[in-house]
Specification:
With 348 residues, the protein is of the alpha+beta class. It is built from ten helices and 14 strands. It is globular and about 55 Å long. The structure holds 2-oxoglutaric acid and fe (ii) ion (FE2). The site of 2-oxoglutaric acid has 11 residues, from strand 5, strand 7, strand 11 and strand 12.
């Protein structure tokens, strides 16, 4: 029995009922009062569980299906071609199996590397983009397979990235209000190409042994993550009770989870809930995780509305780039500071 089975939610039905499904239609269509209503729903979800579904999010099923098709095409390329696009110091590119381990996490001690391969992309900065020219850390460029090898891949992937980036931006103001701040409180933090990463995950068929995971239990280091899954199960989230729950697929929705950055801003009022993946069986599993975060060169600070004399800030202000560097170095074998860097905060 694996961890998720050993500590499975006893009343899964009741646990699933606790997962909110938030309708974005009123807010996205600009209805009166919709911003505050959405912020209230987000606040409740973040305080109770750290995960929620969104429906009527405006991203078409065709575009999502197309993005999954691109991921399948990419992962079907020969390993040598994919290794030619290997993950760079900005964590953009291809990560093969057995190349990362959740050393950062205290949720569950990972002892074996993650059993997934992933392709990471970000804003499609050209070679003459000022940050690419200056080689500014965490402001790099994408690594693409040749167009002739996989025609239409780049355009297809970037269309999905653009849609998710726009959706992520549209949720920033509701999150600011959920934190008890003015709607525009976070606008500047997300300006000038926010840190945004699309991770195209592939979990090949595996026989899970011992302490193996597709993705070991972890919290995300993003502000928020917008996840698209297919019908092959595997994801589990850890409830406040310590039990693990497999959130069902709900057609027409994305699953959103809160990352460590909003947890910091909320002074721990909002939960960045641990989750992980075990795929055990003959089927391939694909998922698309989109991480929406502030610009790396903005400070991450506890929101003034989330602290007072009785409840002082639990976190000092930190540059997001520094927090990202710590996280990457702790978890990814290819990073030059892997295994040596001090991780100041843990979130589990
Ligand atoms: O594959 C999944 O469903 C989840 C992936 C995930 O949690 C991550 O990439 O952070
Ligand atoms: Fe995650």
């Amino acid at each position: 029995m694996n961890l998720f089975q050993q500590h499975a939610a006893r009343d899964a039905h009741a646990a699933v009922a606790q997962l909110p499904v938030i309708d974005l239609a009123p807010y996205l269509s600009g209805a009166d009062g919709a911003l505050q209503n959405l912020a209230d729903e987000i606040e409740d979800a973040c305080e109770r569980i750290g995960f929620f579904y969104i429906k009527n999010h405006g991203v078409s099923e065709d575009l999502i299906g197309q993005a999954f098709a691109q991921s399948r095409r990419f992962h079907a390329l020969p390993l040598e071609s994919k290794l030619g696009l290997s993950l760079d110091e900005n964590n953009i590119g291809y990560m093969p199996m057995n190349a990362s381990m959740q050393a950062h996490s205290t949720v569950h001690k990972a002892t074996t590397p993650n059993q997934n391969e992933s392709f990471f992309i970000t804003h499609d900065r050209g070679p003459d983009h000022p940050d690419v020219v200056k080689q500014t850390p965490l402001r790099g460029h994408n690594h693409w397979p040749d167009e002739e090898t996989i025609p239409g891949f780049r355009a297809g992937v970037m269309a999905y990235f653009a849609a998710l980036n726009a959706l992520g931006h549209s949720l920033v103001q509701p999150f600011a209000v959920a934190l008890g701040m003015d709607a525009d409180y976070l606008d500047e933090s997300f300006a000038d190409e926010n840190n945004a990463t699309l991770r195209m995950l592939h979990y090949p068929p595996t026989v899970v042994a011992g302490n193996d995971f597709g993705t070991a239990p972890h919290t995300d280091n993003s502000f928020m993550t917008i996840l698209a899954r297919m019908d092959v199960p595997g994801l589990a989230i850890r409830l406040q009770s310590g039990e693990w729950l497999a959130p069902p697929l709900i057609p027409g929705t994305f699953l959103v989870n809160i990352g460590n950055m909003i947890r910091r801003m909320s002074n721990d009022r909002f939960l960045s809930t641990p989750h992980g993946v075990i795929v055990d069986g003959a089927q391939d599993r694909y998922s698309l995780a989109y991480f929406h975060s502030p610009n790396p060169y903005r400070m991450i600070e506890v929101a003034p509305a989330c602290m007072d004399d009785e409840n002082p800030a639990k976190y000092e202000p930190r540059l997001y780039a520094d927090l990202m560097h710590e996280f990457y170095a702790a978890n990814y074998f290819h990073q030059k500071d892997h295994g040596t860097i001090e991780v100041k905060n843990r979130y589990d």
